Each structure stands twice: as structure tokens, then as C-alpha cells.
């Protein structure tokens, strides 16, 4: 797919924000950056990197993206760490720390870092910091998780690595923990020109709806997510069943897996079991890169749900808001930055609450439409990729001035 050019983004944002982006790019041009994460596809981090890496390069920042290698047991361990960092009580053994260290060592043996800045995403590759001694780079740890209430043993283990970084980036101050090195706060963002978010014609939406046998004359409630306990797909089915007592409707649970998430198959089996007697529940197992289909499914929906039990940021919410869809979502993690209750969407805390608010939106289409419109403007102001690019360019510049509060132009 051809990458969009930076100038094409100017139509979405204020001219002064676009000018600032170009100015920062001029100042940071020539820097070499390495991004490292743990999966090339599936989940929000891969989604973001796919879009920003070509744009950094166009802006003159020579950016490469690497994915660490890991076995099934390693990703089993890091998924458990992920849950524990989100505050889900998890059994941790010393064997797990050993698996983490061994995979880190194997990746270190294959990688060298000769860039100016290395940005390591999330806990899985965090141990690569051991290579700092043999590189001249500034090292940044980018945390996409809400680590405000982590399980202590996992955080303490990870902290041994994190403290060696020159800086860390969190999605919001609430997610961060006390660290000696500077912390930066950068919201994630979506790309309005990506296949997943671009405008679609009515015919494109209809084709996908038909492919999945959705009846567009009845309300469609949709949650797009990896099949993950923390996304609570079983809770969504419960909420849908409560709605269905009063409103004839359909439910779409659509998602694929991520190569760094080994729990997906098990969750999917449970979801299929819970849905098996209801032809109005559509469980769609999407392949990687089903961007056009996700876009169309979101646009074909009457209400978008994101009933996560824990959430980093929740890009699926951003995507839905950008499409001016009314959203019902749990008041967890970064979702509360995106949904201003009763204004850009509806926040919920329970299955019953989810059902109640879905019914409200189905029964009040005018209010739903208004919320969708406000949601889109909220995303335009805060959560588009151009704002994120500005923030990262400023970070690249700031890393060269570690002890200065004000950097002169
Ligand atoms: N996504 C996808 N295919 C799927 C499920 C999700 O492309 O089958 C995308 C989704 O559209 C969003 C991202 O993956 O862009 C998920 O990001 P989010 O922050 O919502 O959750 P995460 O998976 O990172 O926990």
C-alpha cells in the first residue's frame, strides 16, 4: 500500500499545528532512530509503528523498526507480566524471570545499535537496554501499559531495566511510576489516512456488511478487539443479551490475534461457546491487515463497545470516535481520556451499565449522532498522528538537552 505523504495531513488540522510539525522536523532532521517492539502485527503498538515509521522517514528522521524474536514460552511469560503490570493478580515464578532473561540475551546477541536514539516499546524488549554500554545512542522506554497499580514482583524486576534508560514515555501521567530519569507524556494517536480510518463509500461499507451477513436494517453493536480476557468479550455477550430482551439487535465481536499474545485461542473458544445458540452474534476471526474490513465494520455499526477490564489507551475507541460513532466503553485506562461522559461517548463500569447505555443510544439516535460528532472533533484536537509526530520530534530534540528546561530555537 502506498504511504500517504505528510502534506496530505494538513487538511485535518490547524495550519499552525502543521507548520510547527514541519519546523520541529527541520530541527530534528538527520537523526537516526531505531524502534523495537515485540510484534509486527496485531495490537495497538504495531498499528502505530506501521503508520509512523514511514512518516518519520519522510520528515528526515532515518527510522528503522525491529521486532524481537521469542518463543511461545517467552510470550507466555510476557503476557503474564503484561497482565500483572495492569494490576491483574498473577502467579510469577523465578523460572519466568529466567525465560525473560534468556530470550533477552538471545536477541542481544543478534542485534547491534548504531543509531542516535533507540525507542523500546513495552516490557517484552525492555532488557535490550543491556546494549546501551556498547552503543552511543540515547535510550527511551515507551510504555503503552497502565502501570499505575502493578504487581510488585513484576514491576521490581522490570524496574532493574527501566532505570537504565535515559528517559521514559507514558501515555498519561496517571500511568507512570516514580523513576529517576526524565519522563515524557505522549498520547497515542490514529492515522486518519490509514486504510483503517479513511473515509469509505457507502458501497464499500455495504460490501463488507454483506460479506459477514449483517442485517443493516437492525441495530449492530460491535466490539473490535483481540480475543483477550482483558477486553472482556464474554462480558460484551452478557450485555448484548440484556439489550436483546428489549431491542432486536445483532452483536459483532471481531478480532484476530497478535503474535505476542498466546491466550487468544482459548478466549476465542470460550466466546464461540457462549455465542453458539444465537445467529445474531457474529464472531469474526479477522486475518492480519484486515484494515478495510475493520473500518467498514466500525462504520456499519450503530454502537461501538469497548468493554475492557483494563486498557492501555484503547485505539479502537479512537478509531470509532473518528468515524463519529457513538461509543460505550469502560472507564479504564486511556479510555477515560477519550470519552468525556455524556459528551464524546458513554463510560460504564458493569455489564448492566453497558447494556443500559447501549439501549439509550439505540433508542435515542439524535443524542447518539451528536455524541459521535463531538467524539470526532475530540480526536481531531488530541489524538491524530500529526500531534504525536510533533511530540516525538520535540522529544528527540529534548534528548540532546538533558538538563535544560527551555531549549532555545
Ligand atoms: N486490531 C486489528 N485487528 C484485530 C483487532 C484489533 O487490526 O483483529 C487493531 C485495532 O483496530 C486497533 C489495534 O489493533 O488499531 C488495537 O489497539 P488497542 O489500543 O485498542 O488495543 P491493544 O490490542 O493494543 O491492547
From TrEMBL:
InterPro entries documented for this protein: Glyco_trans_1, Trehalose_Metab_GTase, TreT_GT1
Extent of the signal sequence: none
GO MF annotation list: glycosyltransferase activity
Pfam families registered for this protein in UniProt: Glycos_transf_1 (PF00534), TreT_GT1 (PF21269)
Chain segments annotated as coiled-coil in the UniProt record: none
Top-level taxon of the source organism: Bacteria
GO BP, one annotated term: glucose metabolic process
SUPFAM superfamilies registered for this protein in UniProt: UDP-Glycosyltransferase/glycogen phosphorylase
Gene3D superfamilies from the UniProt entry: Glycogen Phosphorylase B
Trehalose synthase N-terminal domain sequence ranges: 35-176
Residues covered by the Glycosyl transferase family domain: 206-377
The entry's keywords: Carbohydrate metabolism, Glucose metabolism, Glycosyltransferase, Transferase
Recorded family membership: Belongs to the glycosyltransferase group 1 family. Glycosyltransferase 4 subfamily.
PANTHER family found in the cross-reference section: SYNTHASE (CCG-9), PUTATIVE (AFU_ORTHOLOGUE AFUA_3G12100)-RELATED (PTHR47779:SF1)
Subunit description: Homodimer.
Protein name: Glycosyl transferase family 1
Organism, as annotated: candidate division WOR-1 bacterium RIFCSPLOWO2_02_FULL_46_20
